Prior knowledge:
The structure holds two protein chains of two kinds. By secondary structure, chain A is mainly β. Helix content of chain A is 0%, strand content 53%. Chain A has no helices and eleven strands. In chain A, the strands form two sheets. In chain A, strands 2, 4, 5, 6, 9, 10 and 11 form a seven-stranded mixed β-sheet that branches. In chain A, strands 1-3-8-7 form a four-stranded antiparallel β-sheet, with no helix packed on it. Chain A is globular. Chain A starts with a strand and ends with a strand. The relative contact order of chain A is 0.33. Chain B is an all-beta fold. Helices cover 0% and strands 54% of the residues of chain B. In chain B, strand 9 and strand 10 form a beta hairpin. Chain B is globular.
Amino acid sequence: xxxxxxxxxxxxxxxxxxxxxxxxxxxxxxxxxxxxxxxxxxxxxxxxxxxxxxxxxxxxxxxxxxxxxxxxxxxxxxxxxxxxxxxxxxxxxxxxxxxxxxxxxxxxxxxxxx
Amino acid sequence: xxxxxxxxxxxxxxxxxxxxxxxxxxxxxxxxxxxxxxxxxxxxxxxxxxxxxxxxxxxxxxxxxxxxxxxxxxxxxxxxxxxxxxxxxxxxxxxxxxxxxxxxxxxxxx
Lengths: 114, 110
C-alpha cells in the first residue's frame, strides 16, 4: 500500500512565523505535490516537483516555497505565515508509470495562523 | 469563472435511490477527467476515470459530454457508505497536474 505521511495533523502558528510542513512518501514516487483545500474552492495546487531538487509553481505559489532534497520528502515552507494561509494542506505523490490521474494523498495538515 | 465547477450540495439521498450530479469545466482543451471521493476529514482518493464513451464501475456510472463541457456521475442503489464529497478533476494536457472542482456533497440516509 502506498503511504504518504505528513508531519502534523494540526498546527497552530502565529502571524509572521516561519512554518515547515513535511511530507514523506514510501513508494519511490517521482512526482510530489502540495495543495491547499478551502471550503468552496476545492484543492488548489501550490507547488509540485517531478524530481529531486526540481520544483515548479502551481496555481497559487505566492507566500510559499518548497524544498525537495530527497526523493521521498517534499517540504512546504511558509516564510512568514499570514492569517489568509489558514487552511488544510494536502500533500500528494504519484509515479510516472502508475494509473493515469491517480494521486495518493496524505492525511492533511490543518494549519491555523493566529 | 472557476475552471471546474460543481454544485456543492448536499444531495440528500434515500438509501437505495439513484443520485446523479454534474460538473462543468471551462477549458475546452481539457483532455482527461476523473472523479475522486473524499470522506469526511479524510484525504481524497481516486474513484474512477471518465472515458469519452462513458464507463461504469459497479454502481457508479461516469459520462463525458465534450460538446457541452460537462461530466456526470450517477450512483445507483445508494448505500450509506456512499456518503462523501465527490470531487470532479480535470487535466489540461498529458501529465500529472490535476485541477479540482469544489466538490459535491452526498448524504445517503436510511
